[in-house]
Amino acid sequence: MFLWAGSKGAQASGHERRTIYQKIRGYDILDKRRTVTAQKAGEDRAILLGLAMILCSVMMYFVLGITMLRSYSDSEWTAESSCTVLNSSITAEVNCTYSCGSDCRRPASYPCLQVFVRLNASGRVLRLSHNEEAQDKSPECFYVPRCRRDSVAMLGVMLNVSEWLKTQPRLLCFYDPGERRDAALLTRLYGRGAVFHSLVWPSCTLGGGVLIVAMVKLTQYLSILCEQIGKIKR
């Protein structure tokens, strides 16, 4: 009687232990599945982020290619030389219009500052412009300010620029080596430095996107490799 009761109690105790073990095992499997699901979702989001960064960088490269790089390749002012300022004076008044409201425009004028320089490399005398934009808007004038109502203030700006140019013994100028232009530029809007700085952010975005995708793929490969090694050991 006691032996039968003891064996029955042992069987019940063993059954309870197996039940507890199965519950713990089930919880462990469920937790692992949840962890794997969360990891897979995170990896998918990371890959999508990396692909989006790569796509954005490609689009930025395309936009820069048809704007900045094209303007840089088509530029005629590709040669550099030191130049000496020969003359800097205000010669005339140039008419312009300024906005005084949403539907209001009024006439004004700004002083035209003409600057002539001599290229030290060849001895040619050229008219100096501030950049490509000033050369396109008004080839006769060194600088084209924003049209404003106060003409006295614009005259003061031009006089300050003229005095500054006179105090510079030598300047770095950009000119056309083919001598098709009789003008030189003080600065270039689409020079090497501008092109380099415009390509920095797309390159960083592209590198970041490729790095994210590569790291996720490497993590997945290492995880599969660890599982295979674990199965071999078992």
Walkthrough of the structure:
The chain has about 230 residues and is an alpha+beta fold. Helices cover about 60% and strands about 20% of the residues. It has a 5-stranded mixed sheet with strand order 4-1-2-3-5. α1 (about 1-65) runs parallel beside α2 and α1 (about 1-65) packs antiparallel against α5.
Summarize the structure.
This protein is of the alpha+beta class. The protein contains five helices and five strands, in the order ααβββααββα.
Q: Which sheet architecture does the biggest sheet show?
A: 5 strands, mixed
The SSE order reads: HHEEEHHEEH
Gyration radius, to the nearest Å? 37 Å
Can you count the beta strands?
5
- What ranges have pLDDT less than 50 throughout 5 or more consecutive residues? 1-6, 8-12
Strand content: 15-25%
Give me the secondary-structure category: alpha+beta
Provide the residue-averaged pLDDT. 77
Please state the overall shape, judged from the principal axes of the Cα atoms.
elongated
Distance between the termini: 44 Å
Number of helices: 5
What proportion of the residues is helical, as a percent range? 55-70%
Largest sheet, order of strands side by side? 4-1-2-3-5
